[in-house]
Specification:
Elements lengths: L11 H11 L3 E6 L7 H8 L8 E3 L11 H16 L3 E6 L10 H6 L7 E3 L9 H16 L10 E5 L8 H14 L3 E6 L5 H5 L6 E4 L2 H15 L11 H15 L12 H5 L11 E6 L1 H14 L3 E7 L5 H11 L3 E3 L3 H11 L3 E4 L1 H10 L3 E3 L18 H27 L25 H5 L2 H4 L6 E2 L1 H7 L4 H17 L4 E2 L1 H12 L1
């Protein structure tokens, strides 16, 4: 296995944890050694959950490998049932425990527990977290969902939201509101908020809303094939996609499409003079396939941005991402190597990154603003406030999230333009301090030290060139600096003066 400091996806048993933690009345018995027992950290610390995840570990140690680890698993499984009395149990092995080949599923099925026991076969060394979530939910649905009489009124199941998902909690509320405006009720939301008993009721709905293909595509296809439940293909992220989603629901149900636009605040900005500042901004998009596809379309069709690069880390959605990238005239990057992602971002020098928490850190190093659009995320992307990505309010949230980094860049550029002004020059200090401002502003607080910004240690920027560089707009200054240094190195120069700066500008303008 490749060891790394950062990873976009954990092993597949983490995906199974996400499903188990999302549900009630379900327990996950995981054959795992000490060191693989980090579920509490993931869900209580990162996601800020107020309940411990329903996971029992066998926690075998090195000294146990010479004895009967199978007995340890059976004991843990029995204790989990006796203590938690779940409606169903899922069983599996972590990536480390998979190596000892104890077959947790087979052992659990021989124990005669009076509840459904669902074995998980998750190949830890071939697949990853999103696959684990998708496969786990599929196995639960396949084991528990049986044909049922339809509800009298038209209802839908919302499938796909899980623990550790990007804004899944709020997306549920937004999609419920979209359907409620059309007079469509909700039968079951799964796996998040559902129980094994709820899973049995899934076939009573008239259709499924597939919210996140990464975590429910297999279950949606199985229910369509075996239970006659059609599912929506459009993900309602963005204004256009929300309209398309409502239209698709209308075609499935025969109900007239309707969207309550009273809360939609995004279009007014596109009619304002200020919006011209955003037109043509160069953006790079990276994350999971669902959110990348949605974000790229919003960027191009709704914000007027220029998508200069895009890609995803989960290969299950690579085909769709490649197709959209081809349509947009760029080459898709399908990779789970964050260093490769950073190289691609550096090469195209975008003015905005739309990505994960990894791209947020990449943006900090490259001095490029970043808005987070996809998991993996950190604690700050599980806000206490209502902050969906889907539906009408989701469009408002997306607009704010993407525009603010650019507007802040413009604000700093304006401060730079007026640096000679009596109120904004360096010696004046922060203007909001008034007569108390006596400490000069430190340019390095905004742009790093000369050593930090010099990407090639053999090239020295002369003071006059550094001063001239400050006249370049803030949001492209990093690119100008890098291009000039490359230009100088290629020509064997050891110093950069004003002439070098403008020669490099002319060279790259050709």
């Amino acid at each position: 296995m490749k060891l790394t400091v950062w990873t976009y996806e954990g092993p597949p048993h983490v995906g199974a944890m996400r499903v188990a933690t999302s549900m009630t009345g379900l327990h996950y018995v995981l054959h795992a050694p000490q060191g693989d027992t980090y579920a509490d950290l993931l869900f209580t610390m990162i996601e800020r959950r107020n309940h411990r995840p329903p996971v029992t570990f066998t926690t075998f140690q090195a000294r146990d490998l010479g004895s009967d680890t199978a007995t340890l698993f059976k004991s843990a499984c029995q204790e989990a049932y006796d203590r938690f009395q779940p409606q169903a149990i899922i069983v599996g092995a972590s990536c480390t425990a998979e190596l000892i080949q104890d077959d947790p599923g087979g052992m659990a099925e021989t124990m005669g527990l009076p509840i459904p026991v669902i074995p998980l076969e998750l190949p830890s060394y071939q697949r990853k977290e999103n696959f684990g979530a998708d496969e786990t939910f599929y196995q639960i649905v396949r084991a528990l969902a049986k044909p049922a009489e339809k509800t009298i009124e038209i209802t839908a199941n919302l499938i796909g939201p899980t623990g550790l998902g990007f804004r899944h909690r709020d997306d549920i509320r937004e999609v419920k509101a979209l359907l409620a405006d059309m007079g469509i009720g909700i039968n079951v939301v799964a796996p998040m908020t559902s129980s094994p008993a709820d899973i049995r009721r899934l076939p009573a709905a008239h259709f499924n809303v597939l919210m996140y293909p990464e975590t429910a595509q297999s279950a949606a296809r199985w229910m369509e094939r075996e239970l006659g439940l059609p599912y929506t293909k459009t993900i309602p992220i963005g204004v256009n996609a929300t309209h398309e989603f409502v239209q698709e629901v209308s075609e499935l149900t025969g109900i007239k499409p309707y969207i309550n636009k009273e809360c939609l605040h995004f279009p007014w900005y596109s009619k304002s003079v200020d919006s011209t500042y955003l037109t043509g901004k160069r953006v790079f998009v990276f994350g999971d396939g669902t959110h990348v596809i949605a974000a790229a379309r919003i960027a191009r069709d709704e914000m007027g941005f220029d998508v200069v690069g895009m890609g995803c880390y989960n290969r299950e959605t690579a085909r769709a991402v490649r197709a959209l990238a081809h349509e947009m005239g760029v080459e898709a990057l399908i990779s789970d190597d964050y260093l490769e992602v950073e190289r691609c971002i550096n090469a195209v020098s975008p003015e905005l990154i739309l990505g994960t928490q990894m791209e947020r850190h990449i943006g900090k190093r490259l001095n490029i603003p970043c808005a987070v659009i996809s998991a993996p995320v950190h604690v700050q992307d599980f806000p206490a406030r209502y902050s969906p990505q889907m539906g009408i309010e989701g469009a408002n949230v997306i607009f704010d999230t993407w525009v603010h980094p650019l507007i802040m860049g413009l604000e700093e550029h304006l401060l730079t333009m007026f640096r000679k002004d009596f109120e904004f020059h360096d010696e004046a200090g922060p203007s909001h301090h008034g007569h108390l401002a006596v400490t000069p502003l430190d340019e390095r607080s905004y742009h790093g030290s000369k050593e930090d910004n010099n990407s090639n240690g053999n090239v020295i920027w002369l003071p006059a060139a550094e001063k001239e560089l400050k006249k370049v707009p803030f949001f492209v200054r990093g690119k100008a600096r890098r291009n000039t240094e490359v230009f100088a190195v290629e020509r064997g120069m050891s110093e950069i003066n004003i002439d070098t700066l403008y020669e490099a500008k002319a060279h790259y303008a050709r």
